Amino acid sequence: MKITIVGAGYVGLVSGACFAEFGHHVTCVDKSDEKIAALLNGQIPIYEPGLDAIVSDNAKAGRLTFTTELGPAVADAEIVFIAVGTPSRRGDGHADLSYVYQASEEIAGSLKDFTVVATKSTVPVGTGDEVERIIRQANPEANFAVASNPEFLREGAAIDDFKRPDRIVVGIEDERARGPMTEVYRPLYLNKGPLVFTSRRTAELIKYASNSFLAMKITFINEMADLAEAVGANVQDVARTIGLDKRIGSKFLHSGPGFGGSCFPKDTTALVKTADDFGQTLNLVETTINVNTRRKRAMAKKVIAALEGDVRGKRICLLGLTFKPNTDDMRDAPSIAIAQALKDAGATITAYDPQGMAQAKLEMDYIQYHENAYAAAADADAVCIVTEWNQFRALDLARLKREMNTPILVDLRNIYRRDEVEPHGFKYRCVGRPDQEVG
What we know:
The protein is of the alpha/beta class. The chain has 17 helices and 14 strands.
């Protein structure tokens, strides 16, 4: 099939590359001359494991092309996917749909034969109706159908998620869209990817409901971690055991400094705003947002407590800055709030992250960045593990201690055990586990 992706950001680029890998002919369109020039030169603007190889292979095979010219790409397409950003709107927290609506209007003028216009961007309920209205108003003669096809990609594992999805959701109001949307995902049938057709509004709500539920699950286990610390229990044992219940499941039950990234913060907020627009209240989601916001600053207090309640004039090393490993995404990363709180308390901050430092420098220019974990830890009064990159799971603890001024390790991701850290002379603090562990 001939596919056009409008927006060559994270979702658009991953989706386009994977569709091309399926054998479709894909054109990715973006307004950024700089981004398209980089892609044409084989440079990937984001970090996602495995993406560079798929983009390179399919570009060489002629199945994946990049352009800033929307018109010809749309005119030649059987399906046009809208994959532009929908950030939180300044001032009120609603999803900013201006890029979606602008793309819809520009697409309208170039539609020729029957075309499915599918939104991959995360959009509030009713957005598809407005996209359809905009296209119809801009081009009354256009022959098209609007579908909703939300993505469920985890940063750091997006390629595998696309090729082996738990579900593929397609929301339609026009039955003519069913055939093309089925065909575009046909290569996944061998992997038995479940294709679920719903109404368009239902598909839009599914995406927000999914992300909000996962965010609540993370927040729940974080609150259990606080309770575990207070009563002398071990939250990892709690999480592992309740996760054995198939009704609960083990995923997203890892306590830590709170969720961040490009999806959960903005999507939970947007869902609350949507509910408010329809006269409904989502108390669980609202509480999730509030608890998560408070938790990030609370993690800074944990670091301060490990240094006897005072970090003024102290040197604190943060290991890991991105909101999760295997990405360079700094959007709403817990490290931002943690670093700011420590700075406000008078500390000097040093840091190292394997992929996120370029983006981090745009957010936190007051941090001293270093080329590896040990350089960042030099003369530090405490090291704080914020993101669980694999290379931090096997630190040379003896070397780390030699570099530091004071051997204090605050492990906000629980990637170490007390019995493997304390023999090296460290004072060890973690999340949701008692100071003296048994067994």
